[in-house]
Amino acid sequence: MEPKKKCILISGTMGVGKTSVCKELMKLLPQSVFLDGDWCWYSHPFTVTDATKKVVMENIGFMLQNFLRCPDYQNILFCWVMDHQEIIDEVLKRISPALENTSVYSISLIASEQALTQHLQKDIDNGLRSPDVLQRSLQRLPLYQQLSTQKLDISNLNARQAAQKLLDIIAEK
Q1: Per residue in 31-84, pLDDT tens?
Q2: What is the reported pLDDT for 173?
Q3: What average pLDDT does the chain have?
Q4: Taking the CB of the first residue and of the last residue of the chain, which one, N or C, has fewer CB atoms within 10 A?
Q5: Which CATH number fits the domain that encloses residue 139?
């Protein structure tokens, strides 16, 4: 029998470290593949309409299903802002046909306002993010407490340490 696959959904507000943590987690998990939801919506100008939302969700569902069906991948990592339960549920609905013999983990990265501000300010200072992201991200932070996800507070962790903690969470199940 094939080993059970793992599909790991990582949510969190902008700047909390989802991408960095997933890149570190990939190094710790064998046969892993990583999709960042932002890559499915990388457009200029960035526009949020019903049509663009539909395309993004279809792209995410298509790519994750392909990764799940590929026998060479055992650990499928996906991260995105996913600040409402409906978004997580929609992703799961779209990939459900490919979830046979797969354990699904849904984890939210959370942080203190101070830690989040420090992360984002570094990116703002380096020209990687616009200054308005700070307020928008801080406003979303409380939304993650309402989600049906496991929570990992990364306030005092670097990306490698957070990835190790995620590995511990995944091993518990």
Answers
A1: 999 999 988 888 778 788 889 889 999 999 999 999 999 999 999 999 999 999
A2: 56
A3: 93
A4: N
A5: 3.40.50.300
112 beta partners: none
The pLDDT score that the predictor gives to residue 172 is: 64
pLDDT over 90 at 1, yes or no: no
Print the domain residue range for 167.
5-172
**CB–CB of 68/33 below 8 Å?**
no
CA distance 85 to 167: 23
Count up the domains in the chain and report the number: 1
